[in-house]
């Protein structure tokens, strides 16, 4: 860094002071209603504490003052996060009369991200920041280095324990903030144990989304601590390569576009593969906008328009040919769209859908301008992209004809439901459930044991088609898939209409073995790709049949998993000797047992499927079904606990 650059940085550090810390309200409510501030007090809420502190470091990086963040999980499940930003201001904040550092950690919504002075763009969905992490931790300490000085302060359950104190001089070139906190078990009653996989995935994602930023993750809990560093100079371009690592791309390097319009920064990276489905991940200020939004709409609109314009100008589409549709030009596409917006408005069921109309316009303008130029300069690739879309168009037309024939033959009409469906008597979708059951024998038990008023049973035989690798006409030729589409009543793909749904619960019920997991993954992949609104509406579930039956004398217990079994064994008296039997499949249970353990709404366990679960299932499936042996071997090694008790 030159002396001039150092001087400019010092000037901006001086400007980032207590006057830029804006105060909105106090902390009292946070401990009473933590869910309002971090979403929940479950394992997701626990991890949200880490995201909040990391977001502060990323805000410094976005403003150009930080390039490194270190995250450490300590032996006691406390967290240490260090960034090399400017350091939180330590001068007196005018409104509170307290040091800005204390204000940031004790007053809700006090921070540089509210009001214009501190940050133009800020990460984080809740934006609740340091004070909420402090309120929900038994203890928190913070060390700030700035202006050649080091300061320290610590707190207990949100209250000041040690007032801010000067602890020594430091090198004027050193700067940054170190936060260490221990989550409060009185708040996080479910667990205070951090999941290293969850931390790794999000930290990797954040490193992709902020090119050049280095984020490290250290776990001090194992005997041999683990350490990983994430640093991607190519940013989301490398993200697309990472997503496509098990696929065959049409061209080597992803297309990358970036630009700025009306203070909105837009980045897009995309690549086409030989797959039949598309994968788009959209982000706003580093938040994964799972439900999409205006930036996604702007991108889709621009992509379709530019490809059609290019195809017409270069005679790749004849006059008599229809324009390629959105789904045509997106077939086999992997894209990451990341916008940074000064004032994002989130909407939708989970507040993960971007609502700003100016983001649509900015994404459309920036992407279309750069993408049109790219196609013009790379005619061979341009032709490949158009030809892939044209092939998708022809297949779509063939599938439409097949669909119409299918409708006429055995129908996607309500009046002509699949022959093997044992339907329920109620016609009220709100109380109706469809169980998709693996195998005829289990299907028979389920039909006998069910509540006929509310529960319908659809047995499926053999393997479902892998929709990741199949065209629409092949998908429609598959009897099992057609039965499911028909039974749900919604249609699929572009014709999907959730208003026509027959059941508000679609429950996947498979054996607890490798085949069952395989079928479950295939079904989730199918629903994610062709009936996605069912997942978004919260209508898709996975049944949790018990793994064990434990009997001691007259006492019978059905046990869900190995951990629960160990807990029960530890509690049982020594005699009489308990008998433990392991269920290998649903077919081993009679109708009454299946009802008691897995289907009775009063005592069954269901896992609701979220979009991220289904997306992960699709990714895992890509890898397990892919041509590359090494990633498959690595996955099986890393997930050995998942397969060790299963019938392989």
Automatic annotation (TrEMBL):
Binds two Mg(2+) per subunit. The magnesium ions form salt bridges with both the protein and the DNA. Can also accept other divalent metal cations, such as Mn(2+) or Ca(2+). SUPFAM superfamilies: ATPase domain of HSP90 chaperone/DNA topoisomerase II/histidine kinase, Ribosomal protein S5 domain 2-like, Type II DNA topoisomerase. GO terms for biological process: DNA topological change; DNA-templated DNA replication. It is an enzyme of class 5 (isomerase). GO terms for cellular component: chromosome; cytoplasm. Mg(2+) 1 binds at residues 438, 511. PROSITE patterns: TOPOISOMERASE_II, TOPRIM. GO terms for molecular function: ATP binding; DNA binding; DNA negative supercoiling activity; metal ion binding. Keywords: ATP-binding, Cytoplasm, DNA-binding, Isomerase, Magnesium, Metal-binding, Nucleotide-binding, Topoisomerase. Its cofactor is Mg(2+); Mn(2+); Ca(2+). Mg(2+) 2 binds at residues 511, 513. InterPro entries: DNA_gyrase_B_C, GyrB, HATPase_C_sf, HATPase_dom, Ribosomal_Su5_D2-typ_SF, Ribsml_uS5_D2-typ_fold_subgr, Topo_IIA, Topo_IIA-like_dom_sf. Its main location: cytoplasm. It catalyses: ATP-dependent breakage, passage and rejoining of double-stranded DNA. It holds the Pfam family Toprim. Its EC number is 5.6.2.2. It is found in: Cytoplasm. The record marks 463, 466 as: Interaction with DNA. Residues 432-546 form the Toprim domain. Heterotetramer, composed of two GyrA and two GyrB chains. In the heterotetramer, GyrA contains the active site tyrosine that forms a transient covalent intermediate with DNA, while GyrB binds cofactors and catalyzes ATP hydrolysis. Heterotetramer composed of ParC and ParE. Belongs to the type II topoisomerase GyrB family. Few gyrases are as efficient as E.coli at forming negative supercoils. Not all organisms have 2 type II topoisomerases; in organisms with a single type II topoisomerase this enzyme also has to decatenate newly replicated chromosomes. A type II topoisomerase that negatively supercoils closed circular double-stranded (ds) DNA in an ATP-dependent manner to modulate DNA topology and maintain chromosomes in an underwound state. Negative supercoiling favors strand separation, and DNA replication, transcription, recombination and repair, all of which involve strand separation. Also able to catalyze the interconversion of other topological isomers of dsDNA rings, including catenanes and knotted rings. Type II topoisomerases break and join 2 DNA strands simultaneously in an ATP-dependent manner. This is DNA gyrase subunit B. It comes from Apilactobacillus kunkeei. The lineage of its organism: Bacteria, Bacillati, Bacillota, Bacilli, Lactobacillales.
């Amino acid at each position: 860094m030159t002396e001039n650059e150092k001087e400019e940085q010092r000037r901006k550090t001086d400007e980032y002071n207590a006057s830029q810390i804006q105060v909105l309200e106090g902390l009292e409510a946070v401990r009473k209603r933590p869910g309002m501030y971090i979403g929940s007090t479950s394992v997701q809420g626990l991890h949200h504490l880490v995201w909040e502190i990391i977001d502060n470091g990323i805000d410094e990086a976005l403003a150009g003052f930080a390039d490194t963040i270190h995250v450490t999980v300590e032996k006691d499940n406390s967290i240490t996060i260090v960034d090399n930003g400017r350091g939180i201001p330590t001068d007196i904040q005018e409104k509170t009369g307290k040091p800005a550092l204390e204000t940031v950690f004790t007053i809700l919504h006090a921070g540089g991200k509210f009001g214009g002075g501190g940050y133009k763009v800020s990460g984080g969905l809740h934006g609740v920041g340091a004070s909420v992490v402090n309120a929900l931790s038994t203890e928190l300490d913070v060390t700030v280095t700035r202006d050649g000085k080091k300061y320290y302060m610590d707190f207990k359950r949100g209250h000041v324990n040690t007032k801010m104190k000067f602890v020594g001089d430091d090198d004027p070139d050193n700067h940054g903030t170190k936060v260490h906190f221990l989550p409060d078990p009185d708040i996080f009653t479910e667990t205070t144990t951090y999941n290293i996989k969850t931390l790794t995935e999000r930290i990797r994602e954040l490193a992709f989304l902020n090119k050049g930023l280095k984020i490290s993750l250290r776990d001090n809990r194992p005997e041999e601590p683990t350490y990983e560093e994430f640093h991607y100079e190519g940013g989301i371009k490398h993200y697309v390569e990472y997503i496509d690592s098990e696929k065959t791309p049409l061209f080597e390097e992803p297309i990358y576009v970036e630009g700025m319009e009306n203070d909105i920064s837009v980045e897009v990276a995309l690549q086409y593969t030989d797959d039949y489905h598309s994968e788009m991940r959209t982000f706003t200020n580093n938040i994964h906008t799972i439900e999409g939004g205006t930036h996604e709409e702007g991108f889709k609109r621009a992509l379709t328009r530019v490809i059609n314009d290019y195809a017409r100008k270069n005679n790749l589409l004849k006059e008599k040919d229809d324009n390629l549709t959105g789904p045509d030009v997106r077939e086999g596409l992997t894209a990451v769209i990341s916008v940074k917006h000064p004032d994002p408005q989130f909407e939708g069921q989970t507040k993960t859908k971007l609502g700003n109309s100016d983001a649509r316009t900015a994404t459309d303008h920036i992407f279309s301008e750069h993408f049109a130029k790219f196609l013009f300069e790379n005619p061979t690739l341009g032709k490949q992209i158009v030809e892939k879309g044209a092939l998708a168009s022809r297949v779509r037309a063939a599938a439409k004809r097949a669909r119409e024939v299918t409708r006429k033959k055995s129908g996607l009409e309500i009046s002509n439901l699949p022959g093997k469906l044992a339907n329920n008597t109620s016609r009220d979708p709100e109380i109706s459930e469809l169980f998709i059951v693996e195998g005829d024998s289990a299907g028979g038990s389920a039909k006998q044991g069910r509540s006929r008023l509310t529960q319908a049973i659809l047995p499926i035989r053999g393997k479902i088609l892998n929709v990741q690798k199949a065209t629409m006409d092949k998908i429609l030729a598959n009897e099992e898939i057609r039965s499911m589409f028909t039974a749900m009543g919604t249609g699929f793909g572009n014709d999907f209409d959730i208003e026509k749904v027959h059941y508000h619960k679609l429950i996947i019920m498979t054996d607890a073995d490798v085949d069952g997991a395989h079928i479950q993954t295939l079904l989730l992949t199918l629903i994610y790709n062709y009936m996605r609104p069912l997942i978004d509406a919260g209508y898709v579930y996975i049944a949790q049949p018990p793994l064990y039956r434990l009997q001691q004398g007259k006492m019978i217990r059905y046990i869900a998993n190995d951990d629960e079994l160990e807990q029960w064994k530890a509690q049982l008296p020594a005699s009489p000797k308990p008998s433990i039997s392991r269920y290998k499949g649903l077919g081993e249970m009679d109708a009454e047992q299946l009802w008691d353990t897995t289907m009775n709404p009063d005592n069954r366990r269901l896992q609701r499927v979220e979009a991220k679960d289904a997306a992960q299932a699709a990714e895992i499936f890509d890898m397990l079904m892919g041509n590359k042996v090494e990633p498959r071997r690595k996955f099986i090694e890393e997930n050995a606990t998942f397969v060790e008790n299963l019938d392989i």
